[in-house]
Amino acid sequence: MSLWGNFALGFTYLSPLVGVYSLFAVALTTGGPPSIWWIVIVACGQLLVSLVFGEVVSQYPIHGGVYPWARRLWGRRYAWMAAWVYIWAMVVTITAVAEFGTGFFASLFNIELTPAITLLIALGFLLVALGINFTGTAWLARIARLGLFAELIGVIGVGLYLLIFQRKNDFGVFFDSMGVQGDGSYVPAFFAAAIAGLFLFYGFEACGDVAEEVSNPARRIPRAMQLTIFVGGVSALFSFAGYVLAAPNLQEIVNGEVEDPIPAILESTLGAVGAKIFLVVALLAFISCVLSLQAAASRLIFSFARDGMLPGHRWLSKVSPKSKVPNNALIVACTIPALFCLLIFLNENLLVPITSFAILGIYVAFQMVVLAALRQRFKGWRPAGPFSLGKLGFVINIVALAYGIFAFVILATPGSSGSFFEDYVVHIGLGVVVIVGLIYLFIARPDAKSSAPEGDAIRVATEIRERTGQLEVSRR
Q1: How do the residues of the chain divide into helix, strand and coil, expressed in percent and rounded to 5?
Q2: Structural domain includes residue 427
Q3: Is the full-model pTM beyond 0.70?
Q4: Transmembrane residues, as ranges (predicted)?
């Protein structure tokens, strides 16, 4: 992959179009128009995380992302748990994106969206993405670039059009809760709407998941991750703001009286034909997002299995001699989300809580890497890759960890539906994943079967500097 192919992969995984469209109605009914500010807050926090990741991947440009980073920064068992949580969060994210995309497919073809139809469309997304991924990295990069093009049209292009030509509400609406808090304080409502931003800003780490398939990865992947955050944040702001300001019935949307507001806004502003064209663009973005998610998840599973750290690791670590991709890992990255889709078919109220679990799991895995990096800094590690934050690295690392803890608190806040399972499904899901992971780790001892390097950040940094003959590669 080139820099742009790698950026396209991360961007279509992050997918501002998918993020905004999936949770636009949830954000407005929960926090009102001011929920847009979560896009800014989370973008700033995740940019700090991406800077920390950039230093790590620049020193270790190898497949798998979170798993090898945590392993080289801390150790085998620590990395095993980080990757275990991350894998489950990723496959649930694939499920959520496939499920959220069904509404746009149904709107495009005027299909009544019953639970059975939703299941069939979601499974269709998963299988189409699997078929494309089987063809190899070249086609993955091509479709990712096509998805990037669709995203930019669908997010920035339409967002600007709505802002300039179809504005029906004033900009002051972004400081108006429109009554979502009822008679109480607005603060709880605003924090409850954080999911709108938190669901949006991950995916940049996928740039590092495919490191061994990128040309000059130590330099290009950090740049691709930062570009993903910058372009994704600007795109999401244009999109979210455009729909809010162009909504002819904003109060009804905030009140929860409009089940699927974005197609209605598009039809009222672009007309029936324009709305259909745009739905095609949106579907391209959703398919591309599922494709990128599958690719990233399969590379993590492959990397994990290559070190003998998973049941069936010999089968999972096989690479197709023709396409040069881990086909068996791809099959797993498609099958498990398909099973989750079946679970949602049986209880459709689980979609939002399951999405929340995916976000929390991703953030747990991310912050395990951030914490491991900070631990190494305290021990004297100075990243030796071409990308380095220099003296600012320590401060950025600490603030990135503080942001992660802040996100944990928000994501772990129980729901208020009155159903114990639905309100605590995030905690239950994370607890089950962690407990099962710990049981397997201490009984099967997969870490004992692996001889791959671990905890060598300081030694490798020293070797890099000795090999290059310079004290600080990052300052050349």
Answers
A1: 75, 0, 25
A2: no
A3: yes
A4: 7-30, 36-57, 78-101, 113-134, 146-165, 185-204, 224-246, 277-304, 325-346, 352-374, 394-412, 424-443
Q: Which domain holds residue 273?
A: 3-411+445-475
Structure tokens at 101: 């995309």
**Any idea what the CATH number is for the domain that residue 132 is in?**
1.20.1740.10
pLDDT in tens, 255-309: 988 877 888 888 888 888 888 888 888 888 888 888 888 988 898 888 878 888 7
Q: Which residue has the tokens 């020193």?
A: 59
Cα–Cα distance list, 241 to 35, 166, 174, 343, 475 (Å): 10, 12, 9, 34, 41
- Side-chain-facing half-sphere of 266: CA atoms under 13 Å: 26
Buried b (16+ CB within 10 A) or exposed e, 178-211: bebbeeeeeeebbebbbbbbbbbbbbbbbbbbbb
35: tokens are: 């929920």
How far is the C-alpha of 3 from the C-alpha of 154, rounded, in Å? 22
What number of CA atoms fall less than 13 Å from residue 45's CA on the CB side?
23
Cα 36 to Cα 106: distance, rounded to the nearest angstrom: 27
Please report the sign of the dihedral spanned by the C-alpha atoms of residue 323, residue 329, residue 333, residue 338. Answer: positive
Note whether 121 and 102 are within 8 A (CB): yes
Structurally, the chain folds into a number of domains equal to: 1
Q: Please report whether residue 422 resides in a domain.
A: no
Q: Return the DSSP state at 174.
A: G
Q: Is residue 303 within 8 Å of 63, Cβ to Cβ?
A: yes
**Tokens 């931003």 belong to residue:** 197
Let me know if residue 312 belongs to a domain: yes
CA gap 195, 26 in Å, rounded: 9
